[in-house]
Structure formats: structure tokens, C-alpha cells
């Protein structure tokens, strides 16, 4: 049954019972719904065409992007490196995928930049490769130290292929110099194992071999946000084979990795650093939760509505968010020069499912909060949340989709704007492609009522109308 039939049903049902005002309102509502669905269909068709042509699109050139004026002689001194372009071949679910990324300093003027210029958000169904993109980004960001870092590739090469390749382009300080950095990471099958090889081009890679250098900073967080149970241990050294640079991203590849707890490091840093951390947490947490630099033995103590709560007693949502944020602050403080505030540090941060376990109210702010707190950090994030998606503009969003005809995933940029839409509007858009947000049993009831109404059942017509007007089925 089409929505044109529904519109006719509204007129048939309402006219005999005299609800002319409601009929007019219902008709307008249905017309708006029809228009929205037609727009969504057109956008899905556009995306399908874009996905079909995805392999043919060239990687965006650094030279094509507006740049800030820069003294090229200062490039060597800039500690911040950002990932600008990524190409993936035969890695897990991807046969070939290309993407260009937002990064700090990318745009020549603030007016040309999106509202949040340092965030990239990947959305898509489960199994479409969002986590794989984060792993690929981590590999190329580690460059020539990857093969000696303790990284062991496991089932990364696409089935029925012998080699996977990840190619990355990087730029210093948001500025592509005369010789932009490039890194290729190749994984080859050898019997039951996979081996990794890296090939780097361009100058200035030397700082990557200094693990205490702020250059080439990259941190990554998988969906496991568990912190070390023993606060006295430093999980960044818990596996001696792993170099610290790889340990910062290892939870993307290994679910057993523990993050560094506040008690493992915060009491040992300077008073000024502790004040900075307390301020970051104040800005990151809801108004009724705060951290006053208190500890109960080796456990950080937060205050929720004035009541002291040890970190281990916080809810899963708080521990998930504070787990990766605290680990990030630890790694930033470990490499930041004494005179550089943590909020001024730059680099790349990868977070899988940024909305994990967070209340919807928190989801509305989490990405904007971290982007503003760390304006020099390039964030590459994934989410399933329509609320998180609606906080960003189309230029910040990348869509991962299955190609059912070829059993591969593809990436595409999005064009239809979702910024400012409510959660239901985002879910019904082409990016999530839901036909309805109603509970399955309610949707089934509506379908059955519509069928009965078409066959002339007056009671079904009235019931169908009541659901459309009231928004719920009520008791059966």
C-alpha cells in the first residue's frame, strides 16, 4: 500500500466523523511524510550511484586544498602530523576504498571550514568496515616503526587474496609541504601467518623513532575501554614486546589490552599538569559530576552531586568515556614539553564507537566537547548513534556501505545535510535507511490495520487514524 492510499484513507475516515480540522492536519502531515520519503529515496539512489563509482574516484590531492600561509623552513619544527588521504586495497571487507580526511589547518579561512574542522565521523551498519578504517589509519600513522613495534597482523588480508595494501598521505602541521609524507603498509600471507612491510617516502621520519617525541602522535581506542585493575601497573609496558607508540593504538587490534588508569600516572605529574587534567575533566563531564584531583589510595575519586564516587564505582558509561580520555591525557602528558598545555597538543586520535554506553543527552555533546578541548587533534571516530551523527555537518561524515552484488564494503562522502536534524529524521534518512522507527510489533499492527481499512473495515480505519494522530497503539 502506498502513502497515496493512506492519504485517501485519511479523507475517507475523517469526513464521516466530522473531524475536518484534524483531517486537514493529518493530510498535511502525510504530505510532509511523502515529501520526506521521496527525498530519502532520491538520496539513496544518489548514494547508490556514488558507491558504484567509488573505485573510480581519485584520491583528493593535497595541492587541491586551500592552505594557510606557511614558512616552509618551519615544517621540520612542527610536531603535529595529520592523515590527509587513505587508500585501502584488499583489507578485510574492502576490495578498494579511498577517503580524504578533515584535519586541523586544512582550510585557508575559518569561513571555509565546517563548524568542527578537526573531526571525521564514520557511520554504517555492523560489518561494513568502520573499525577496519581506524586500524588502517593507525598502521600508516606509525609508518616505519610499525614492523618493529610489536604489531602482529591477524586475518587482515581479504579472503582469497594474498596481499593487502594500505596507502596513506600525511602532512605536517596541517600544511602539505613540498614533499608530503607518504607511507605504504603491505601485509602478505605466508602460510598460516601474515607479515607486514612498510615503505615510507619523504623527509622528517626520524622523530618517529623517538618514543618520547610529540611528533607523529597517534592514539587509538577500540570498543573495549577496560582500565588496568592494578593502578600501580603501567599497561603501556605490560607487554614488553610492544613499543609505546604501538601500545597507544593496540586496543584497536587486541581486545585484551588495558588502558592506563588515572591512579597509575596522575599523582606523579606536576601540580600544573594535575590542574590541567582536572580542568579537561570538568569540561568533559556533565555538570553534576566533577573531579577535584582526589584519590582514595590509588583510585581516582569523582564527585557526583556532591557524593564521592571512586572511579571503579562509576557507571559503565562514565568508565567507558573516562577510560579512553584518561588514557589519552596520560599519553599526551608523557610527550608534551613542560611549557605546552595539553589542550594545545596535536596529533591523531582514533575512537571506535565514540557513543559507547553514553546516555543520549551526553551523545549530543561528546564529539563537540572533545573537538573543542583539543583543537589541534585530528579525530577519526565511528558511531551507530543518530544523535551523534546529527551534531555534525555532512563534510565531517563518511558512510560505509555493503555492496551486496560484490560482497565488499565501500566508502563514500555524504552530501545530504543532517546537522540539526532530530534522531528520528536522521534514522529515516538515507544514511541509516530505516523505513520506520516504530517497534516491530507496532509497525506490523499498522500494516494489518491498513489492509483491513482498505477492505472497508470502519473500525480499522478509525484505529489506524488514531495511531497516526496519537503516535502510539495503546493497549490491544
UniProtKB/TrEMBL annotation:
Taxonomic lineage of the native organism: Bacteria, Bacillati, Actinomycetota, Actinomycetes, Pseudonocardiales
GO molecular function, one term: ATP binding
InterPro entries referenced in this protein's UniProt entry, alphabetically: ATPase_AAA_core, Bact_Antivir_Def_Nuclease, P-loop_NTPase
Organism of this sequence: Actinokineospora cianjurensis
Keyword annotations from UniProtKB, A to Z: ATP-binding, Nucleotide-binding
Record-annotated ATPase AAA-type core domain positions: 119-387
Origin superkingdom: Bacteria
SUPFAM superfamilies noted in UniProt: P-loop containing nucleoside triphosphate hydrolases (SSF52540)
Secretion signal span: none
Pfam family name, one: AAA_21
Protein name: Putative ATP-binding protein involved in virulence
Amino acid at each position: 500500500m502506498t502513502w497515496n492510499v493512506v492519504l485517501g484513507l485519511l479523507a475517507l475516515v475523517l469526513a464521516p466523523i466530522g473531524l475536518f480540522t484534524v483531517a486537514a492536519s493529518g493530510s498535511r502531515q502525510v504530505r510532509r511524510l511523502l515529501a520526506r520519503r521521496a527525498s530519502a529515496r532520491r538520496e539513496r539512489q544518489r548514494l547508490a550511484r556514488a558507491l558504484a563509482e567509488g573505485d573510480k574516484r581519485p584520491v583528493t590531492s593535497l595541492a587541491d586544498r586551500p592552505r594557510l600561509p606557511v614558512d616552509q623552513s618551519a615544517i621540520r619544527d612542527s610536531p603535529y602530523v595529520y592523515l590527509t588521504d587513505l587508500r585501502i586495497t584488499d583489507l578485510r571487507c574492502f576490495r578498494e576504498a579511498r577517503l580524504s580526511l578533515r584535519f586541523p589547518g586544512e582550510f585557508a579561512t575559518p569561513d571555509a571550514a565546517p563548524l568542527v574542522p578537526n573531526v571525521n565521523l564514520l557511520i554504517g551498519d555492523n560489518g561494513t568496515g568502520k573499525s577496519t578504517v581506524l586500524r588502517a589509519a593507525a598502521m600508516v600513522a606509525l609508518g616505519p616503526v610499525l614492523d618493529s613495534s610489536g604489531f602482529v597482523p591477524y586475518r587482515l588480508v581479504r579472503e582469497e587474496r594474498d596481499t593487502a595494501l594500505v596507502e596513506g598521505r600525511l602532512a605536517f602541521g596541517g600544511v602539505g609541504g613540498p614533499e608530503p609524507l607518504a607511507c605504504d603498509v603491505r601485509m602478505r600471507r605466508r602460510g598460516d601467518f601474515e607479515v607486514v612491510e612498510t615503505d615510507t617516502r619523504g623527509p622528517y621520519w626520524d622523530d618517529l623513532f623517538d618514543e618520547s617525541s610529540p611528533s607523529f602522535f597517534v592514539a587509538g581506542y577500540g570498543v573495549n575501554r577496560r582500565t588496568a585493575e592494578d593502578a600501580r601497573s603501567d599497561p603501556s609496558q605490560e607487554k614488553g614486546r610492544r613499543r609505546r607508540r604501538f601500545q597507544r593504538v593496540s586496543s584497536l587490534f587486541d581486545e585484551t589490552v588495558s588502558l592506563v588508569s588515572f591512579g597509575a600516572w596522575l599523582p606523579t605529574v606536576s601540580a600544573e599538569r594535575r590542574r590541567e587534567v582536572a580542568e579537561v575533566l570538568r569540561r568533559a563531564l556533565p555538570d553534576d559530576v566533577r573531579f577535584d584531583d582526589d584519590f582514595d589510595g590509588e583510585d581516582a575519586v569523582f564527585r557526583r552531586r556532591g557524593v564521592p564516587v571512586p572511579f571503579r564505582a562509576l557507571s559503565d558509561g562514565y568508565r567507558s568515556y573516562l577510560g579512553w580520555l584518561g588514557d589519552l591525557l596520560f599519553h599526551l602528558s608523557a610527550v608534551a614539553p613542560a611549557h605546552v598545555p595539553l589542550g594545545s597538543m596535536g596529533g591523531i586520535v582514533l575512537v571506535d564507537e565514540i557513543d559507547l554506553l553514553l546516555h543520549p543527552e551526553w551523545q549530543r555533546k561528546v564529539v563537540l566537547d572533545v573537538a573543542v578541548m583539543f583543537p589541534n587533534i585530528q579525530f577519526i571516530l565511528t558511531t551507530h548513534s543518530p544523535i551523534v551523527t546529527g551534531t555534525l555537518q555532512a563534510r565531517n561524515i563518511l558512510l560505509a556501505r555493503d555492496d551486496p552484488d560484490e560482497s565488499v564494503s565501500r566508502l563514500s562522502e555524504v552530501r545530504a545535510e543532517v546537522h540539526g536534524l532530530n534522531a528520528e529524521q536522521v534514522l529515516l534518512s538515507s544514511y541509516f535507511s530505516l523505513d520506520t522507527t516504530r517497534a516491530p510489533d507496532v509497525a506490523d499492527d499498522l500494516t494489518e490495520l491498513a489492509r483491513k481499512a482498505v477492505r472497508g473495515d470502519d473500525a480499522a480505519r478509525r484505529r489506524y487514524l488514531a495511531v497516526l494522530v496519537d503516535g502510539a497503539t495503546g493497549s490491544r
